[in-house]
Amino acid sequence: MENFNEYLIQGEPDKAEKAKNWKTAVGLQQVDGLTPSGYLIETARLNIEGDITIEEVKKRIDHYYKQQPTKTDEDRTEEADKVSARVAELLSEQAFAFSPPEYLTIHRRLFTGIYKFAGKIRNYNITKNEWVLHGETVLYASAVSLKETLEYDFEQERKFSYNGLSEQEIIDHIARFISNLWQIHIFGEGNTRTTAIFLIKYLRKLGFKEVNNDLFADHSWYFRNALVRANYEDLSKGIYRTEMFLIRFLSNLLLNENHLLKNREMLLYPLG
If you average pLDDT over residues 119-132, what whole number do you get? Predict the structure, then answer.
């Protein structure tokens, strides 16, 4: 990601905006432990310089991987490259609708050709072993109620009024909404990246035009772990859901506060 910092320092508005989008796009791949290739970085630089369009970036990446030998399932660099380009494209667009179809469309645009279920609601239940929970899983929404749950959360948020709330109350509510949305885990894979893009665009709609997206670039794994901790509890062990970590992230994101964001602080128990 440091490959793009020079454009932020130079201060040319168009290049800086593109560089921010690319930095976020590349950083978000870390939520799934993915690292884009050097080819993607160099192609992104051409886009930032204005030599090629984002559409040309996507075509070059597609052509590049058609020329490469067959990869193993463990090598997900192609996914990282293609999704990074698509994230950069989505972030460059001003269009947005606060609706379940928009959420599904973001997933479809990110993962078409990568996951067979791109943009589709999962029809099976899932669990995920979480590092921050020492292998335990969040309880995600049941497959039989996903569409209804998604629509309910959107309707509740649509009815909610931010009028008269303090900055802290606004952040607390956004944390609750985005936590609930992520907990549905409506897709088989790609939920966190989709939720992050949706959140950035929703925050813009709410008027947060200068969102510090460096947080998503530099602390995307923290963002995911914070969502995990906001949705896990085990009362028999005295473990309660907490949005504290997610609120810290959002406070840094929206208010330029300086909370220290350390993943280890979110671990349920200290490592031995």
Answer: 96
